[in-house]
Amino acid sequence: MRGYSFYERASRAFHQYPSLSKLLVVVTLSGGGVAAYNGAKPFSTAYAESVKGECEKKKKVVVLGTGWAGVSFLKNLKNPSYDVHVVSPHNYFAFTPLLPSVTCGTVEARSIVEPIRSITRKKGIDVQFRESVCYKIDADKKKVYCRSSQDTNLGGKEEFSLDYDYLIIGMGAKANTFNTPGVEENAHFLKGVEDALRIRQSVIDCFERASLPSLSEEEKKRILHFVVVGGGPTGVEFAAELHDFVTEDLAKLYPSVKDHAKITLLEAGDHILNMFDKRITSFAEDKFQRDGINVKTGSMVVKVAENEISTKERGTGQVAHLPYGMVVWSTGIGPRAEVVDFMKQIGQDIALIFSKADKNKSGNLNIKDFQEVVDDICERYPQVELYLKKKQMKNILELLEGSQKKSVEVNIETFKSALSEVDSQMKNLPATAQVAAQQGAYLANCFNRLEECEKYPEGPLRFRTEGRHRFRPFRYKHFGQFAPLGGEQAAAQLPGDWVSIGHSTQWLWYSVYASKLVSWRTRVLVVSDWGRRFIFGRDSSRI
Amino acid sequence: MRGYSFYERASRAFHQYPSLSKLLVVVTLSGGGVAAYNGAKPFSTAYAESVKGECEKKKKVVVLGTGWAGVSFLKNLKNPSYDVHVVSPHNYFAFTPLLPSVTCGTVEARSIVEPIRSITRKKGIDVQFRESVCYKIDADKKKVYCRSSQDTNLGGKEEFSLDYDYLIIGMGAKANTFNTPGVEENAHFLKGVEDALRIRQSVIDCFERASLPSLSEEEKKRILHFVVVGGGPTGVEFAAELHDFVTEDLAKLYPSVKDHAKITLLEAGDHILNMFDKRITSFAEDKFQRDGINVKTGSMVVKVAENEISTKERGTGQVAHLPYGMVVWSTGIGPRAEVVDFMKQIGQDIALIFSKADKNKSGNLNIKDFQEVVDDICERYPQVELYLKKKQMKNILELLEGSQKKSVEVNIETFKSALSEVDSQMKNLPATAQVAAQQGAYLANCFNRLEECEKYPEGPLRFRTEGRHRFRPFRYKHFGQFAPLGGEQAAAQLPGDWVSIGHSTQWLWYSVYASKLVSWRTRVLVVSDWGRRFIFGRDSSRI
Question: Which helix (H) or strand (E) holds A55?
Answer without folding.
Answer: none
